[in-house]
């Protein structure tokens, strides 16, 4: 075969055709961006800054004549525009899939107010300088289009740049990070809407198309939702959809996007809406996330950001254009700053976030470029020089905003760090983020039971924000030394290291089915994470995940499980050692769940039965943390919670005001007169607040047990062992006379004295046990046994 035909080379003197040069350009952008990111990452810079710089460097290299002829051929513009459309379609659909809908609904008011603040402030500022720019350029007609073009340039926010930067800074799970993402999307969609509507009325040809394509998008949403529920039923034993089935969704989306773009409309909002309305549960959703996330984040977005930088060109600008360029950049930053400050002041957002929001929302480059490339911008005043000036303004503003934001985060690192690492001072109206870890299906049932318990009932779940994560822990097998060649290995052994997706496939399928059943019943999305690591390093990965996901508590499975005959079996000491390491190093509270799913706690979402839960309170930080966790149990009508307080005999207790067990009292004070110690005062005030809030209103039962030593405590625990299906107790309580002597026969110190007794198979306790340890702050003097 002729080499020219093989490499798609044109006839004549041309070295390459535009399609080949485009792919070579993408390869150069990826290489340069990795090089820049290698040096900029230690300085806290996000990936988009490095990728835009890579595009700028490639653009500057076009000064060389040969490079210019190579990359900027006469037909290259159409290739670049079409390929950028494909990239834009892919990542906007993924953004719609990944967006946190629950957070957007809860913060809809905040997002709208900040969006309006940015638009109004930018519009007023640009209107004030419109006369100056008209005279300096000069421009004699079509002022409305000019105003819209500069308004979009000033007020626009490139949501892909915001999302990618937030992810690189590991703020995508924080409140402020998700608020920035929501505001970026609202600002971008509003800019598209304003421009499209105004231009459609001016031209008089687009109004019907807008309604037509909106109707077509609604129909396609219904088709996609039907396919998302029907396709998994074709192969129920497969973990993911086939590649052909996945391709069906992409073809439908591309057909709609191409049809819309052919009518000179922007398809970004329509594609984003398709992703936003996609069902958030089931095999189809997991397949699309799994197959889109890596290529989009690692290839599509870097190339797109590099393409933004590649458009940078200032060679043709004159002095007056440089003046307008400087004014445009300054006014863009000033407009966002004033708009965000006014909106945040009105919404009473903490001041430490004001400057961060204003700078991160100043990044440009997405809709701005789409606007400048659109056909409606072919006006008399829109010369190639003004085009280059506006593109340069977008690039410079984005670079400045990214650099300023990263420097701000470095100087205020503690202010943006995860601070909700324990539950004691949590309010149930705040979002509860939990991470539950499982090794297999057996653990997943108990973990889903916990999640179901904390989620409350279906009619109050929306008022109590709850974000559960389930992490599938897959121990990586050690490499075995063998003298056999690869083709001589057994088929199963040869494929044992065939990739991360092959580990835990059967277990993963059953776990997925359990989660889908829970999600369908409770309407709560359980976000899944898979962790494949050696057992020696797994605790580090879990601890890192708790920080990245910003969870307040992580649940770990106990290293023993209950057999069918009711007795327990040890799964391995390696799992126990992993739990102990997490207890020492995790930057949040930890719960070890002893699941007795045969005789103890059962899944709530599969039945209407009422589960009786007891929270044991002896005193100390861990018991307070355990009782704080129980606040979320009060929202679940299938849970009957009882607080059992153990009180030492030598402690003087004043009688409760009125009857302590009646539920008609509005205020009940529990005064404990004992040694003047801060810990005891904290226990007293905490228990008093909990009592007044939940016990007196009838939501929670309360029982007091007076004991003098550990033996009496054991007798009481044996008496109540059959009365409850779940015990919640703190791990450590220092030198407590009520548990003295109980550690003489201790088997698992990581559960504490009370938790170890309740988890022991030698005792007549059939209930499940949740042992809670509060996050050990730097000032806590705690020594783990």
Description:
It is a single chain. The chain has 785 residues and is an alpha/beta fold. The chain is built from 28 helices and 14 strands. The strands form 3 sheets. Strands 3-2-1-4-7-14-13-8-9-12 form a 10-stranded mixed sheet, sandwiched between helices. Strands 5-6 form a two-stranded antiparallel sheet. Strands 10-11 form a two-stranded antiparallel ribbon. Strand 1, helix 20 and strand 2 form a beta-alpha-beta unit. It is elongated.
Helix content: 40-55%
Derived from helix and strand composition plus strand pairing, the structural class reads alpha/beta
Q: How is the main sheet built?
A: 10 strands, mixed
Give the integer mean of the pLDDT values.
80
Number of strand elements: 14
Unreliable spans: 1-10, 486-504, 654-677, 778-785
Q: In one word, what is the shape?
A: elongated
Q: Helical region count?
A: 28
Proportion in β-strands:
5-15%
The order of strands across the largest sheet is 3-2-1-4-7-14-13-8-9-12
- Determine Rg (CA atoms, Å): 31 Å
From the N-terminal CA to the C-terminal CA, the straight-line distance is 74 Å
InterPro entries: Cation/H_exchanger_TM, CHX17_2nd, CHX17_C, CPA2_transporter, Na+/solute_symporter_sf
Protein name: Cation/H(+) antiporter 1
Family: Belongs to the monovalent cation:proton antiporter 2 (CPA2) transporter (TC 2.A.37) family. CHX (TC 2.A.37.4) subfamily.
Main location: membrane
């Amino acid at each position: 075969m002729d080499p020219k035909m093989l490499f798609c080379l044109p006839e004549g003197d041309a070295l390459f055709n535009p399609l080949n040069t485009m792919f070579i350009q993408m390869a150069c952008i990826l290489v340069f961006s990795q090089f820049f990111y290698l040096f900029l990452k230690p300085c806290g810079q996000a990936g988009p800054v490095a990728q835009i710089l890579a595009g700028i460097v490639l653009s500057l290299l076009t000064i060389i004549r040969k490079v210019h002829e190579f990359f900027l051929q006469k037909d290259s513009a159409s290739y670049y525009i079409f390929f950028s459309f494909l990239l834009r379609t892919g990542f906007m659909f993924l953004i719609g899939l990944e967006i946190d809908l629950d957070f957007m609904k809860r913060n809809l008011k905040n997002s709208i107010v900040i969006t309006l603040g940015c638009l109004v402030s930018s519009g007023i500022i640009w209107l004030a300088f419109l006369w100056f720019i008209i005279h300096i350029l000069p421009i004699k007609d079509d002022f409305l289009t000019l105003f819209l073009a500069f308004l979009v340039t000033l007020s626009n926010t490139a949501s892909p740049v915001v999302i990618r930067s937030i992810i690189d800074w590991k703020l995508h799970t924080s409140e402020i990070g998700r608020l920035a993402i929501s505001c970026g999307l609202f600002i971008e969609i509003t800019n598209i809407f304003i421009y499209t509507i105004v231009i459609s009325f001016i031209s008089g040809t687009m109004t019907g198309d807008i309604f037509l394509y909106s109707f077509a998008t609604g129909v396609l949403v219904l088709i996609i939702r039907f396919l998302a529920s029907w396709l998994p039923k074709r192969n129920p034993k497969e973990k993911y959809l086939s590649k052909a089935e996945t391709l069906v969704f992409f073809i439908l989306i591309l057909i709609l996007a191409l049809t819309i773009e052919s009518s000179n409309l922007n398809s970004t909002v329509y594609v984003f809406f398709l992703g936003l309305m996609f069902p958030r549960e089931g095999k189809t959703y997991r397949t699309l996330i799994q197959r889109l996330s890596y290529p989009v984040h690692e290839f599509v977005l870097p190339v797109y950001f590099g393409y933004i930088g590649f458009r940078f060109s200032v060679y043709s600008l004159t002095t007056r254009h440089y003046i307008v360029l400087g004014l445009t950049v300054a006014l863009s930053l000033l407009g966002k700053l004033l708009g965000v400050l006014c909106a945040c002041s009105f919404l009473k957002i903490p001041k430490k976030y004001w400057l961060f929001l204003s700078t991160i929302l100043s990044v440009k480059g997405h809709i701005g470029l789409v606007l400048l490339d659109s056909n409606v911008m072919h006006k008399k005043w829109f010369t190639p020089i003004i085009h280059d000036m506006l593109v340069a303004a977008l690039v410079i503003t984005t670079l400045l905003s990214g650099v300023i934001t990263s420097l701000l985060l470095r100087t205020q690192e503690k202010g943006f760090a995860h601070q909700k690492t324990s539950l004691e001072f949590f309010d149930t109206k705040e979002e509860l983020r939990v991470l539950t870890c499982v090794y297999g299906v057996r653990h997943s049932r108990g973990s889903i039971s916990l999640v179901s318990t904390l989620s409350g009932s279906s009619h109050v779940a929306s008022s109590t924000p709850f974000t559960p994560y389930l992490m599938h822990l897959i121990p990586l097998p050690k490499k075995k030394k063998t003298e056999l060649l690869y083709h001589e290995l057994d088929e199963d052994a040869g494929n044992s290291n065939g990739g991360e997706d092959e580990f835990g496939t059967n277990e993963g399928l059953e776990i997925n089915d359990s989660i889908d059943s829970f999600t369908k019943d409770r309407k709560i999305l359980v976000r899944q994470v898979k962790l494949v690591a050696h057992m020696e390093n797994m605790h580090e990965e879990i601890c890192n995940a708790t920080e990245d996901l910003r969870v307040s508590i992580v649940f770990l499975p106990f290293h023993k499980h209950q057999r069918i005959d009711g007795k327990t079996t040890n799964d391995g000491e390696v799992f126990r050692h992993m739990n102990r390491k997490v207890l020492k190093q995790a930057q949040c509270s930890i719960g070890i769940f002893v699941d007795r799913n045969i005789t103890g706690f059962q899944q709530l979402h599969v039945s209407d039965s009422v589960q009786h839960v007891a929270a044991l309170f002896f005193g100390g930080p861990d018991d307070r943390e355990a009782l704080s966790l129980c606040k979320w149990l009060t929202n679940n009508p299938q849970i009957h919670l009882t607080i059992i307080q153990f009180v030492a005999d030598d402690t003087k207790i004043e009688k409760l005001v009125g009857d302590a067990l009646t539920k008609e009292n509005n205020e009940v004070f529990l005064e404990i007169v004992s040694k003047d110690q801060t810990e005891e005062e904290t226990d007293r005030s905490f228990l008093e607040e909990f009592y007044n809030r939940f016990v007196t209103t009838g939501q929670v039962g309360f029982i007091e047990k007076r004991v003098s030593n550990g033996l009496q405590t054991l007798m009481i625990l044996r008496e109540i062992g059959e009365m409850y299906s779940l015990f919640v107790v703190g791990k450590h309580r220092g030198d407590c006379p009520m548990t003295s002597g109980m550690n003489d026969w201790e088997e698992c110190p990581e559960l504490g004295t009370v938790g170890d007794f309740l988890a022991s198979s030698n005792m007549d306790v059939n209930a499940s046990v949740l042992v809670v340890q509060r996050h050990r702050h730097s000032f806590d003097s705690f020594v783990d046994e």
